Structure formats: C-alpha cells, structure tokens
From TrEMBL:
A Pfam family that the UniProt record links to this protein: BMT5-like
Gene Ontology CC terms, in alphabetical order: mitochondrial matrix
MF term (GO), any: phenylalanine-tRNA ligase activity
Enzyme kind, highest EC tier: ligase
SMART domains hit by this protein: FDX-ACB
Superkingdom in the source lineage: Eukaryota
Organism encoding this protein: Dicaeum eximium
Name this protein carries in UniProt: phenylalanine--tRNA ligase
Amino acid sequence: RRVLLLGEGNFSFAAALGRAQDTHVVATCYESEEEATGRGGAARSIRRLRDSGAEVVFSVDCTKLKEHFSPGKREFDRIYFNFPHCGRKAGVVKNRQLLARFFHSCSEVLAQQGDVHVALCNGQGGTPADQPRREWHNSWQIVAVAAGAGFILSDVHPFKAENIDGYKCTGYRSQDKSFCVEGALNHIFTRSTAPLCFTPVSCETQLGSQKVSFQVPQVLVDKINRGFLEVNSSHPVRTIKEKLSAGLSQAFPLQNISSCLPLLHQGHPSGVCHSSIFWITPGEAPSTEEMSQGLADAVLFCHFGQDTDKNVQEGCPVPKQFYLRPSLLPHAQAIIKKRAFSPGTLQVLSGPVFRKCRISPHSMPVFHEMLVVLAVSRGTENSCTQMLVDNIKTTLNSLHQGVSGVKPSISLQEATSSGTELNDFAAFEWQLGEIQHFLWVGTEAEPSGSCVGVIRTAPDEFKSRELVVVSASLNLDLLAMLLCGISDWRMLWTWDRRFLRQFPEGELRLFKSFSLYPPSYVHDVSFWVPDGEEFDEVAFHTLARKVSGEMVVSIQLRDSFQQPGTGRRSLCYRVTFQSCDRALGCREAAEMQLHLREEIQQHLGVTLR
C-alpha cells in the first residue's frame, strides 16, 4: 500500500507506521528540511524512515498535493493528516477553509478505493462522536467540508496516542511544544458515489393486445427495473420474501404467480386519493421500422407531468387514462374473479408498487409488496387466517432473532379508522378496501413499531357460497428496514456497492452505515397560494423529491398567514436537505433550493415571496 502522511511535526507517527509490512510510506511536512530537523527527535525519526525505505519530502502544501507528485506516483491508498491547523491562533473559520482545500486536493491523488484519516482534538470535528460536543458554529464542521469535495465519513474512533510506539505530538501554536490529545478522534473518510444523472427512461409493457411504451416519471427513474426480487439478487428485500415464502410453504401449498404482472393499470382506482397516484398517458411503442430509421424520438411515448395531474384534479376527462400500479391487490382480485386458483393453496404475488406520498424516513414512493391470497372453505376463514398470521409471525421472529439476537414485538391489531396513528403504507391500504387487521412489528431500535402489513377478506362480490378469500399484504421494504436496523428507506435504493456487500446471498445482518453523521442544510420557502385553491402538499413533496434526487429528508410547515382585507393565503415551509449515502455539500444543496423555488412556481401555480 502507498501511504501519504501530511503535516508531520517530528515524524514520530510516520516512523511508527514505517515499520508496517507491505506499506510504502511517503512522509511529508510543510516546513523546509532545515526547519523540520530542528524539532526535538525529528532528525532521528527521519533517519529511521529513510533506512526503512520510506520517502521523506519537505515543503509540501496539503492543499496542492497534485503539484508535489508526478502522475505515476499520485495513487495513494491512504492519506493521514494528524491534527491539522493553520498555525498560531487561527480560528475555526480559517481551519475549516484549510480542511476544505485539503479534501479537494486529496481527491486528486487518492486511489478510488482509498481512504483519508484526519485526527482532530476533542470537540473540533463537530460530530456527535465528540464528547462533549461543541456548538456547530464553533466547530470545524469536518463532515460538511469533506462533503464539498465528495467525501463521506465512514468511520470514527478514538486516536490512542499511547498505543503508537514512540509517538509524541508537537506543534502547539506552530512551536515545538506538545498539546493535549486526550479524547482526540480519528475520522476516516471515503469517496462518495457520484451524483445521479437523471436521463429520461422509457419502459415497454403489454396492455391487452397492444404494446405501449411509457416514459418513467423522473422521480422514479433510478428505481425502475432494479431487479431486487430477481433470482440472482442478494438484496435483503428478496431474502425476506424468500424466507417468508419458505415459512408459509411449510403450512400451505404455495404457488408463485408474480411473473409478468403489468406495471400499468387503466381507469381510476376506486376510493383512492388521485394526488397519490402516478398518472400516465400512454402511446404506441415505436415500430421496428421506425427504430431502424432512427425515428424513436418522434413517436408518441407515455407522458407524465403536471398537465395530466391537473386534469385529474379538476375532474376533466383524460383519454386512455393509465397509472402506475399502487398495489398488487387488483391483480389478486382478477385471479379471484376468474376462479384461477386452487382452494387451500397460497397464491403469492410480489413486485414493486408506486405511490406518491409525503417525505419522511419511512414513507416511500416505491416499495416491494408481497401479497398472499388464500381461498378457504366458508366457516374456516378465522382459523385459517390465524394460521396464516401465526406462520408469518414465526418466520419474522426467527429472522429478527437471527439478525440481532433479540425477539421482536409482533402484534395483530384490529383495524379501526381512529385511535392508532397509521403510517403512509397503512393509510393508503385503508383506501383500497376494508381491512380486518394491521400487522405491527416493533424492535429494540423502534419499540413503538410500525405497520408492515394488512389482513383483509375479499369483498362480497368476490365471495362464493363455498369459499371465502383471505389476503395478507406485506411491505417488504419496511420489513427490511426494521429487521436490519436501516433508519432511512432511501438506503435500500442506494447505488453504493457497500450496501449490498453487507448482505451476502440469503443472509440478513444488522446494517452498519458507511456514511456517518451526514450534514443537513435547512432552507425556508414561502409563497402565496392561488385564490380559492387548496394547496396540494403531496404534489409539493413529489416535486421536491424530483428536483433534489431524493436529497430532501424533511418538509415541515412553519407558518400559515392570511392577509387581512384581501384574504390571500401565504405558506412557509422549512425544507431540510440531507443525503443518507453520498456526499452533499452546502453549495449543491443551495442550488437544489433555487431550482425547487423555480419549479414550484412553474408547476404548482404559487407566487414566491
């Protein structure tokens, strides 16, 4: 490994590291050789380094690393910068600026899979790992400045000077004096994945006898056709689905009918709020001849946008109205209507479903649903439902104990329209039809639990004299979050390979975040709402998702004001930008906020204040 050390004072840290096998050390300092060797013990450490084959370089500026190393010698596997400081009595602002330039410089000489180690005195970093923690404005804000250069904090641990043989800190206020390193922390940074490029994506699907192509809504571009449930996937969502299927198959014959379920539905979903639906207006797919002539861009693709939503909201008829499926329930009902099932056999459907919703860590515009349908003899529905639920509970208990060693709290709660506060998943399921029970799962990390499934019997129109149909709908993404300790749904959809590396095929584990203490940026936006119109918050949240690429973690209404005399209404929202898996700098967040202001004015008809 090639290891670069910056800002060495007396070179004692480099000398200790130089003894490591299979490590080529390049030790540097900012001072000239004459100044550096004048420090106590420096000459001896430099001699030891050179004797071991290490390189020692003087007068190296940590903010201009590319200038000091030729192109063939820039690929460092690790960079150390212990206790950086501008010198003398420099304040926090100057030291932040130093770190910002340092991280930008590191990005030019660090190997793609390399890491950067920065040791800071207790409290300087400004992260929750500091004890006691300084106020944010009085810290060096190391995670935020690193994010500006494309780095994320992947680990932090105590800097134990006593365990480093021969190490002696020096450089207090640019002098040959030691300083206190008790409680110091070593911050380990890695490269973040690059920002997503939102290229328009079109999908093709069969609708009856006609093949149509549709343009995927931009907010879903990075989530369509990800293949999480495919055979070769090691994603925890698929593992949970397979484990549940295996558990259920021990109690019931099982038939999997998830293949080739269309993504689009036609018409208007009964009882469902239209603002929660991704509406689509499809067109015919390009012919082979058109494709060969390069005319694919000229054909009518499926369109998604505010015009379609506005027509739906205003009750205007829209020709050939289609929407992305918000549930697998209609597919199950079609099977029931056709009597295409065997009584006593579990029919298992699974796949992604799409629902517009407000932004929160547990509210997702797309998730994987597992729908289990069981037809039983009339009079046995209660016992069979209990058997089905008991089997699901047993499997989830086993899965969670295998991951954390702690038994989860799993309960079946009677469905009522009031009382228990429902999450977005349960609230939407309620719109789809009558529910008998909610399935709640609580863990040590989330004792209050969350609704992860609903149990219902088919409406009278699907019943027969002999049979009653029972179904269980499970949110696999929520289950993965609860069982694996994932606090933000966006992490399930990350493109960073470090996520899936934590889940070998067929194995569930507690997730360890590779992006610690991500910085957040708060911006307010206020505007006048059009007279006589109700402001659509779900559309606002969906627009924020699209503009930021899912970088908005929270939107909160801060103030509502009605102007005396005119009656005009003004709303003020607080928008918090934060990524869970990649670097997000303050400048990028500010650009997103400006773009969001433009978009809400253009698409939601508001007047900015």
